[in-house]
Design a protein that fits this description.
Number of domains: 1
Helix content: 25-40%
Strand order of the largest sheet: 1-2-3-4-5
Oligomer: single chain
Shape: globular
Number of strands: 5
Order of helices and strands: HHEEEEHE
Low-confidence stretches: 88-94
Strand content: 25-35%
Radius of gyration: 13 Å
Largest sheet: 5 strands, antiparallel
Number of helices: 3
Length: 94
């Protein structure tokens, strides 16, 4: 489990990423920003992108639309995934 300072930093980075995704429809710009924040791509193709930050234990899932832009995204911590029955905040485009 992360300490108090790390947990605050983790949440701040998560908020920054969500705001960036919502305001930046260009995937190339998101890639650059995630790389600058020390995220590592685990999968990055035309349909789905998964980026992780191993130190802050955050992952970003981007689902792409065929015509460009995002069909949806999720930003969560590793701990969010490890809790059975817990839903984490995300966005699904309509």
């Amino acid at each position: 489990m992360l300490g108090d300072i790390e947990a605050v930093q983790q949440r701040a980075v998560m908020v920054e990423i969500e705001e960036m995704i919502q305001s930046t429809p260009d995937h190339a710009d998101i890639r650059k920003a995630l790389t600058a924040l020390d995220f590592v791509p685990k999968q990055d193709d035309a349909e789905v992108a998964i980026w992780v930050h191993p130190v802050l234990r955050i992952f970003v899932l981007l689902q792409m639309n065929v015509g460009g832009g995002y069909a949806g995204y999720k930003v969560a911590t590793y701990e969010d995934l490890e809790r059975p029955g817990r839903e984490f905040v995300g966005y699904n485009a309509r």
